[in-house]
Amino acid sequence: MAGLGRPKAELTLSDEERDALEGWVRRRSTPQAWALRCRIILLCAEGVSDKDVAVQLGSTAHAVGRWRARFVQHRIAGLGDMPRPGGPRTVTDEKVAAVVARTLESTPKNATHWSTRSMAKELGLSQSSVSRIWRAFGLQPHRSETFKLSTDPYFIDKVHDVVGLYLDPPERALVFCVDEKSQIQALDRSQPVLPMMPGVPERATHDYVRAGTTTLFAALEVATGKVIGSLHRRHRSEEFRKFLVKLDKEVPAGLEVHLICDNYATHKTPAVKKWLLAHPRFHLHFEPFRVR
Asked: In the chain, which ranges are continuous DSSP H helix?
């Protein structure tokens, strides 16, 4: 039986076209929209159906068919944006690619990152043009993020353990996220606070009296958001054990208790381990080690 649906235009590539398309795909500074169109054409040239190309590249069969047809009709030029109503474009594709490449691959002199003004001056464009290009390609040179890589040899096992507790907690058990906040300043105003009155806001003195520091031990119940906490003068294993005793009193006796903790030394002392042996319903789960 003959295949159903509209017949697809035959797509073949010359050696020069294939080299050009593969070069754009490999280049890191190629705009993502253009690289996607190149990948679509390369797969179509291998005989892959529009539907399968769309699945592999996270696109739609309609979009794949459109770029296939435009390439067959206009070749590589058909992968660019078609003319739209209005005045002629003043910023060419080459200028756009230059802005993207310069943003990704270089930094300006005497500055840590490009601004729209410095990039516009560098390439002879308007500031608004550079801003539009950056928005179109999701470029934000002024922003940076930090990260850490764990060196824990059991990283994957611990991630599975902790994430599994969050996503699929055991039956007849409570899961708590436990942490401590140390060196909390215990401050008080030097004079009583004057209450709010009609036409007069609450007033307090600008200075305060120091009353030392305190440490907050807290456990967040993952299922309900309830917090069980206690304050202690110091941040030692002894205080952590006292906090475990408080949890033991507040959690119903028939439930298991799973505590997700960091790798602070006070959680692993012999005194804490001895207490856990005497209270087998408590289970400590440690997150992976982090690079300090």
From this structure: 15-26, 32-45, 50-57, 61-74, 93-105, 116-123, 127-137, 155-167, 237-250, 270-278
Alpha-carbon span 59 to 19, nearest angstrom: 23
Domain ranges of the chain: 15-79, 93-137, 155-188+209-286
Cα 165 to Cα 20: distance, rounded to the nearest angstrom: 50
260 class by beta-carbon count within 10 Å (0-12 exposed, 13-18 middle, 19+ buried): buried
Comparing CA positions, the residue from 58, 33, 62 lying closest to residue 50 is 62
CB proximity list for 166: less than 8 A, separation 6 or greater: 175, 222
Residues in the chain, total: 292
- Token pair listed for 273: 């381990």
Range scoring the smallest mean pLDDT among 44-53, 121-130, 134-143, 268-277: 44-53
Residues 251, 265: Cα–Cα separation, whole Å? 25
* CB proximity list for 159: less than 8 A, separation 6 or greater: 288
Look at residue 282 in the predicted model and tell me its pLDDT.
Answer: 96
Residue 164 and residue 172 in contact, taking contact as beta carbons nearer than 8 Å: no
CATH 3.30.420.10 correct for 155-188+209-286:
yes
Closest CA to 133 of 181, 82, 99: 99
Q: Of the ranges 4-18, 153-167, 272-286, which one carries the lowest mean pLDDT score?
A: 4-18
Phi, psi of 230 (to 5 degrees): -155, 150
Instruction: State the pLDDT confidence band at 84, using cuts at 50, 70 and 90.
Output: low
Q: How far is 175 from 173, CA to CA, in rounded Å?
A: 7
> Can you give the pTM of this predicted structure?
0.54
